[in-house]
Amino acid sequence: MSKLGCPCGNVIPDQTDYLPYKGHVLSDLHCDDFFEWVVEQTQRYLEATREGRRGAWLIEEGFKQDYIDLKLSDSEVLHDLIYTRFLTLKRDMYECDMCGRLHVQAQNGPRFVAYGPDNGCFNAVLDAPARE
To answer: What is the pTM of this model?
Structure first.
């Protein structure tokens, strides 16, 4: 997506990374399954790597030889594996910096549903500081 129009008339751009008004929603229905999948896949990857089967395992998981030829680090491979799965489950969310409406991507599509805050203001709810 590159721009989202808000009913207030504001245009919300999405043309870069690390936007303070953009977030992602992972439904509670998928949360436990997602983290169980992460643990299982990480364990399977580590076992394959220990056994010298890293390339074969990646092929089994649907990666192509040109990906394997990149000779990425374990952390880069795990990032790609986990992030690719996350992309299939998450929905995007944007907060209008004019009126504060939250625009949540509707399930299975590019359409968004808007929810307005009681105070009618931008509240920066998606710009929360990271926990350590």
So the answer is: 0.82
